Amino acid sequence: MSDAATGAGAPLPAPEPTHDRGSSPGGQAAEPGLPGQLIAPRSLLLSPLRMRRLFTRNRTVVSPMCQYSSVEGGPSDWHLVHLGKFALGGAGIVFTEETAVEANARKTHACAGIYSDRHRPMYRRITDFLRTHGAVAAIQLGHSGRKAASGPPWTLFQPLTEADRTRGLPPWKPVGPSAIAHRAEAQTPLVLDRAGMDRVLEAWRDAAQRALECGFDIVEVHGAHGYLIHQFLSPLANQRTDEYGGSLENRMRFPLQIVDTVRAVWPKDKPLFFRVSALDGDGGVWDLDDTVTLARALREHGVDVVTCSSGGINGPLNMAIVPRTPGYQVPYAARVKREAGVLSCAVGLITEPAQAEAVLQAGDADLIALARELLYNPNWPVHAARALGEPDYLDTLPPDYAWWLKRREKVREIS
In 3D, which of 89, 16, 97, 31 has the Cα closest to residue 396? Predict the structure, then answer.
């Protein structure tokens, strides 16, 4: 793929997946045969993927999982260990949790952020660790919009009130496209005027620049789950009468401006992801036709991969519009991939190696993202390699792990 075809705002041809073994720690191109690398994977799941000039060692993605353990936006030792174990377990891409582009963009006081220069060394030690152990470091940037100023999920994101100030958790004023609260007891958001929108765009630009300086190789723009970008896209939250409301084209305008802002500072050789709610939650009106239209536009604006989730426009935790059965969101990723001509990432109750491999073999997605399954088993990638018949499956792990485990296997064979 030429640089001319990957500039911000230029048409972006979907890269062809490669099966050449050529990734080294951190996703940099290298000679095949490095310690800890599979030489000739039999499965697509364990095959590398090239996106622009970045290589992943396999197709497994650690989906962003909010930890509610940040201190004034900054990651802690918890995050280093939480994310580091996925790199040691063999994942190809490790995403940090949704990370707010400004302090008031956080959902809760304990949410992650990258809105201050003091955050840079905190994230840098995490990205250095991930890269050292073979994973691509990725960050999901987001803005909660009208869902800001809430308690943690175990309170069902109960909106903060003045009473919480005495506990050191003062509320702040959420913002949104229109003066419509996302639930009855929530604050009515402040409507973003032109100056407010410009401030938000500046926050996205600064966050993307910091992400680069922190050593991340992938940025994902969070446009799903009822947060600010999704609020602009959905007529349930966006009832503006200016050029940012009404028609689908108008409702996509600000989200695409955010993408352009990020792409302008994100290097041409690094991929850009976008997460979308392919369908709204209960009572929503956004559908798959809208998602395909958006995905086509995202591709034209320099997005490489669309991650297809669903729901979240209404209520505190209401993020599903269909029953949560295994792989329930795979059809969304498949349609986006085929009709929008963009790479897709499938997520949602994909837990078994054979299931993940079947999705890739069918051409329904290019990447497989897991979340809670990896909390239960952070070594899922190496177990998947074994289940899929990879002869050197232990090489999915770091060399010093693999050496000892191979000796263990030999002892088992002898006995």
Answer: 89
